[in-house]
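Appendix B. Chain record.
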Amino acid sequence: MSNVANAPTEKWAKEAMTPTVEAFHSRIRKLVAERLAASGKSWEDAVADPSLELTTADFAAVEKELLDTGYRYEMSAQISLVEAPEKYRAVEGIKDTGGMEKDEDGNRVIGTGANVFRVDADVVGTARLVSTVDIVVDMLTNGVPPGTIAIIDDSGGTLTAPILEHFTGVVCMGGTVRSHLGILTREYSVPCLMDAQLDGLRDGDRIRVEYTKPPADVYAENDPGSRARIVKLEGESVAQ
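Structure tokens predicted for this chain:
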């Protein structure tokens, strides 16, 4: 083809999988088309012209356009929120609506999640919020308390990597079973739920996590019935 104007429109007709990627791709395609038209060059000449290369400033401007709409990224690692809080949505924390259902034993179901891999028995342990470097350093120095089921909002895996193998289980409030944390827990054989939706869970709660649930299929349609449950064992909270 001699220029972008002659390119078949169906080549780029399919939208990207996420709004963020679509926003960047569509804006950059438009920017390239504008630069090409203004240059008066053929496509073959334009792609070899260093003066028409996109710059860091161009990409920064595209990102600014997106952020100016009020959009904020979902953070996958705490360091992102620390270094660029203006770009990332703040962590909302765990809600407590008081509207939790009960399981067949009368225990409150305080969350569900996507199981990374299946184990032979559900896991009982103490929920401990592990969300900052200070907490990780303390556990690294003084040891991870026995029976800890780590409640994590950082799906990047880097935050808890030094102590990950010492957890009895992991519940992560972000990511998917294909996230870095999911991959690491599978390698360490530490039961893990990703993309957890929690309601009423508190630090120190004794919980049972349904790690016997079949592994989540990241490509399947969302089915609430396929998600593993987290139940609070009443009267068994651990003092902090």
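Further analysis of this model is presented in Appendix C.
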